[in-house]
Amino acid sequence: QRPLLEVTDLVKHYAVRGGVLRRRVGTVHAVDGVSFSVARGETLGLVGESGCGKSTVARSVLRLVEPSSGAIKLNGTDITGLSKAEMRPHRRSMQIVFQDPFASLNPRMTAGDIVGEPLSVHGLATGRAQQERVAELFAQVGLRPDQMKNYPHQFSGGQRQRICIARALSLGPSLIVCDEPVSALDVSIQAQVINLLIDLQRKNDFSYLFIAHDLAVVAHISHRVAVMYLGRIVEIADKTELFANPRHPYTQALLASVPVADPKAKRLAPMVDGDVPSPINPPSGCAFHTRCRYVMDRCKVERPALVEAGEGHQVACWLNDGTGRPE
Ligand code: SF4
Ligand code: MG
Fold this sequence. Notes:
Elements lengths: L4 E14 L4 E16 L4 E5 L6 H8 L7 E6 L2 E2 L5 H10 E4 L13 H11 L5 H14 L16 H13 L5 E5 L7 H18 L2 E6 L2 H7 L2 E6 L2 E7 H6 L4 H8 L40 H5 L5 E4 L2 E3 L12
Helix pairs in contact: 3-4, 3-5, 4-5, 5-6
């Protein structure tokens, strides 16, 4: 069966201009050749430090940002060149939940109107039928129907994110892109929202592209995980495989920084040192070479491709080119 979403060689570069003449002084490599797929009913986690291009991937998939090149196939149709009108049927099947639930809710609309709006826009339900559908959606996300008449400021942060989730669900999407959906919430609320998302997927069978900088959050909800660094995917594998057998030095460092339940458990590698380099004119070769403890001469000049390192496990690192995994 073909994947629901197939992203091939996605690139998004921006020109950086400076000086009075606004000359091009550099190029931001926000996304630099990213490929992945998401199956029906699957959750793919996309993890990486802030500025690594995760959100740009999310926005490109939804066509909120135009990629510089690459293909984005939804149900086998390349949607990258489609006009607004041609996009319309696809818009229904892809929804997004943003990080900041307050900023993405119109403060002058009631929660019920916010959730019902997509139904009106797409001409699916009006009046009483819409009210009933919205009440159902409220119940699905754990809100009470009498809260439909309240305004966003009358809800807590977690409840506001539930409103956003209900709105995303309203059109019966096949893909929901979640861009850091719990990062702005209290830690005590995060698990509730994540568990709600998992529960909704069980009942509705849609796919998630789930983006976060927190590996623990991604691990909980994802079936597979892709690790991004400076606009590229450096490793992608089944969640269990990635945690048991991380091959990329960057993934190893990220995992080492996740608190382990057993304090005696062996740490895989020291936490990664230093900041992420600027995505403007990023490092040559392997972009991680400026921070990698295993760096070799070759890493500084040649860019390692994402290659198969095991079943469904791909990694972009010269150490995996026949020389095995770093110990
Ligand atoms: Fe480190 Fe080289 Fe592997 Fe990059 S390719 S992660 S620099 S060992
Ligand atoms: Mg972001």
